[in-house]
Amino acid sequence: MIIAIDGPAASGKGTIGKRLAAHYGLRHLDTGLLYRAVGKTVLDAGHKLEDRQAAIAAAQSLDLARFDEAVLKGAEAGEAASFVSAIPEVRAALVGFQRSFAASAPGAVLDGRDIGTVICPDADMKIFVTAAPEVRARRRAAEYRASGKTIDDATVLADIRKRDERDSSRSASPLRQASDAHLLDTTNLDVEAAVAAAIAIVEKR
């Protein structure tokens, strides 16, 4: 079974993806980490995020195992991911890895922004997770504070809105809800309620 979960930043798709994978005994891939790793590689090498060739080279030689997930979850990597993920050649370089992961037994849950539309268009189940920008900003700010960073909600909200615009307007695999995806709005749901709602969607199918 392949479950595709898409949605904007801080909508809850990553947490839901992990919990669904554990619930059904499937493997899980947060595809956003791939793009965060590419962006971090570009920055660590001293290149600008606008350097297309550096980003493409990083994607083609990506070794996710050498990264600390906590670092990739940081604001810098997140911002970098939003830039490099708009480069068609970067996305093309990572398609094979994602599809291979999804196809391996016993199945997988993948979360990202183009899973149901591009990576796994024939997934058994598709869920599009969303939430109001203000709510997503509060969630992301809380994550940053929990990791020891000082940041205000207004700054995070501005970043969320910019990322939404870049993700939805890019020419390569823009963020959008697949026509056959189930919409799950987590604006007024806590983690447990959101996960329960996702399980209910899968079970109904």
Please summarize what this structure is.
This protein has 205 residues and is an alpha/beta fold. It is built from ten helices and five strands.
Can you give keywords for this protein?
205 residues; Rossmann fold; 56% helix; alpha/beta; globular
Please describe what this structure looks like:
The chain has 205 residues and is an alpha/beta fold. The protein has one domain (2-204): Rossmann fold. The chain is 56% helix and 12% strand. The chain is built from 10 helices and 5 strands; from the N terminus they run E-H-E-H-H-H-H-H-E-H-E-H-H-E-H. It has helices at 13-24, 32-44, 52-60, 69-72, 75-84, 88-103, 115-119, 133-146, 153-169, 191-204, and strands at 2-6, 27-30, 108-112, 125-130, 182-185. It has a 5-stranded parallel beta sheet, sandwiched between helices. Helix 1 crosses helix 10 (191-204), helix 2 (32-44) packs across helix 3 (52-60) and helix 8 packs across helix 9. The longest helix is centred in the last third of the chain and has 17 residues, at 153-169. The termini are close together.
Inertia-based shape: globular
Low-confidence stretches: none
Q: By helix and strand content, what is the structural category?
A: alpha/beta
Helix content: 55-70%
Examine the secondary-structure arrangement and name the CATH architecture: 3-Layer(aba) Sandwich
Strand arrangement within the widest β-sheet reads 2-3-1-4-5
H/E topology pattern: EHEHHHHHEHEHHEH
Helix count from the secondary structure assignment: 10
Give the tally of β-strands: 5
Portion in beta strands: 5-15%
| Gyration radius, rounded | 16 Å
CATH class bucket: Alpha Beta
Count of discrete structural domains: 1
Going by CATH, the homologous superfamily would be P-loop containing nucleotide triphosphate hydrolases
Mean pLDDT: 94
User: End-to-end span in angstroms?
Assistant: 12 Å
